[in-house]
Amino acid sequence: MSLTVAGEFDLQGAMTEFQEKLRQQHEESMHRELEALLATANKEEAEISRKDFDGFKKLFHRFLQVKGPSVNWTKINRPPEDLIQPYDRIKAKGLPDDITTSLNKLVVVKLNGGLGTSMGCKGPKSLISVRNENTFLDLTVQQIEHLNKTFNTDVPLVLMNSFNTDEDTKKILQKYSHHRVNIHTFNQSRYPRINKESLLPIAKGMGLNGANTEAWYPPGHGDIYASFHNSGLLDKLLAEGREYIFVSNIDNLGATVDLFILHHLMSLPADRRCEFIMEVTDKTRADVKGGTLIQYEDHLRLLEIAQVPKAHVDEFKSVTKFKIFNTNNLWISLPAIKRLQEKNAMDMEIIVNPKTLDGGLNVIQLETAVGAAIKSFNNAMGVNVPRSRFLPVKTSSDLLLVMSNLYSLDAGSLTMSKKREFLTTPHVKLGSSFTKVQEFLKRFENIPDMLELDHLTVSGDVTFGKNVSLKGTVIIIANHGDRIDIPAGAVLENKIVSGNLRILDH
């Protein structure tokens, strides 16, 4: 008996030793390949890329160490009540007379690394027109300019670009030079995609073109801490007396500066200063995949669906156990970011994102999420905000909502129209003929009246004439080969339309 145990133990030991050697080999090969890539760059490029690669090496090292799920499901608890405060409680504190003093310590950061490809657009997503010819970027600039004029302050806007969006964004920024808002940019890191089998970079050189077009990726928004710090902008803003950044996705039109949350942060005593606030909101059926806040080993922690063991995915998606999700509107202390970066103490789980490239090659991208760092900050908390602070435009269905009369636009901010009787947003599902923005726009002579709409499903070749009104539940399905033209002035209330309906000009 004792022999078997000893034998098993030796085998285990040998396996561990073998795995350790394999890890070392992978790491040494990776370092060699990265050095060879740097040798193909010019001096200035190599300097920037070396910083990027240092971050990548740390991530790759951790990737090789981590085995199995990053959370133990039995240790997950719901956060204590006081760690997720209702927004109304924070709002009840009111505002001080001198909110300008607080605003002078704030910086607005927008995550601007994404392209508009999923909506059929070339270039940065932030340059897509969303309302009255205004792009996401236009609306952001208008919001901050309005804030600066109203409170006679100087809140700067910082854009975190990626190598995909930087050039196009900088060209556009010239048009805001006469606006009352200082705009800074910095670039997210550029990391190499790695071959799933060999775990080596697929890049042949540091270039972005030709065979290298698909060799690089921006490593998720968790990279903000390192790249912000490396860019020198973090120190510059600290020297100006800035204390907090408000970070959000540029395509979330609900993420405006909230004065009540800002005042809450600024009014806490120094020894209990909150270094991180995550805005969360109540989960609906549409949000079941969103990350949620949990209590884990005495810390608040962001739990993403990718970290959940397969057996518990349904439980994670349940609206009863995990009632809230992360909006990715975050308020983070600048001095705390500097401290954690310098101590190399920013702890974020690795997201392994598998991709198949056009030629069929399987690669992996190692990424991190900005909200995952919440557990590294002191006195972190969640604030359960109204749904109106989460208005992302990810698809043409979302675009239809924000272009419609459901929302009114004032100084760059969209708010639900007072004419809508209930606060919930209608559920809109547009089919594949509407995916690309150009196609979508061709199918509407103008955007229908949707004030009384609850649910809209459109599938197939469908067009809408002028001044159409949609109410209640409307389902329009044109089968393959059929076409439906909804006539000008039509009022559809609780209707299902199917078959073929062509209206031709006489």
From TrEMBL:
Substrate binds at residue 221. PANTHER family: PTHR43511. It comes from the Eukaryota. UTP--glucose-1-phosphate uridylyltransferase catalyzing the conversion of glucose-1-phosphate into UDP-glucose, a crucial precursor for the production of glycogen. It comes from Oryzias sinensis. CDD domains: UGPase_euk. Its EC number is 2.7.7.9. InterPro entries: Nucleotide-diphossugar_trans, UDPGP_fam, UDPGP_trans. UTP binds at residues 125, 188, 220, 251, 394. Coiled coil: none annotated. The keyword Transferase applies. Keywords: Nucleotidyltransferase, Transferase. This is UTP--glucose-1-phosphate uridylyltransferase. It catalyses: alpha-D-glucose 1-phosphate + UTP + H(+) = UDP-alpha-D-glucose + diphosphate.
